[in-house]
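Example record for the data management plan.
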Amino acid sequence: MSRAKGQAQAIRQEFIEHEGMRVIEVAEFDLVLTRLRVPEVV
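Corresponding structural encoding:
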């Protein structure tokens, strides 16, 4: 997550400047994704 932080900041800054917005708060969260394997015939 820390490696992507710099890239995220650059993308966010570009978007903010393009849209003329103001960022009030930035938060970081861990996101866990999983792929459940369910048999086709249950």
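Summary line stored alongside the record: The CA atoms of residues 7 and 34 lie 24 Å apart.
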